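Q: I have 246 residues here and want to know how they pack in 3D. Can you give me a structure?
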Amino acid sequence: MTDTVVRTRGLTRVYGEGPTAVEALRGIDLDIAGGTFVVLLGPSGSGKTTLLNLIGGIDRPTAGEVRVDGVDVGAARGAELARYRRHGVGFVFQFFNLVPTLTALENVELIAALAGAGTPEALAALDDVGIADLADRFPGQLSGGQQQRVAIARALAKSAPLILGDEPTGALDRANGAAVLALLRAACDEAGRVVLVVSHDPDVARVADRVLHLVDGRIVDDVTNPAPLGAAEVVAALTAGEEVTA
């Protein structure tokens, strides 16, 4: 059996105090094994992004435990938390978050360097996402789909066991969104990473091994997909004659 990479117990996040307090997460218990693609579905305000932020070490839990690859993320402070963010997790955001004055390669090198990697790893990551030939272009010279590929390359260059995606296809058209999902599926299958994606799009569930439905801060359904789409199948299956331009 593949080892558990992500583990939470009683994970709770409350914002504010007293009668105005908001319970964003209410006692989440979750185990995710390596090599698993998981999608979090649910309406706005259901706690999806809060859960992602707690697992990524961006926010801290009010109560409960979150561990990633043996690191107690909720309790980590200072250098230990910084080390986790550098080496333990890669992030892919909806709006790319690229540095506009750096080339595609330099954007990837910047994150790779924080994790102790260098130019060879950055170039290999750009090659993995199919845009090594665009390494010298600035973000403003790239399409939305190409910019998101750079963002994924940044996550891959770290060789982290976990990739977190917060609506990674939300700013893309359907065809380019499918291409990004194919890359994330490949990262999961080929390197045994956990890929955990927040989405409002039920189509994303066709790519995932597990689909978690969140409502009011609780997991109300945990469904195993018996036949998730493979990386080579995603684009054809999720598009209907739309051209993938990047």
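Q: Anything worth noting?
A: The chain has a mean pLDDT of 90. The two ends are 37 Å apart (CA to CA).
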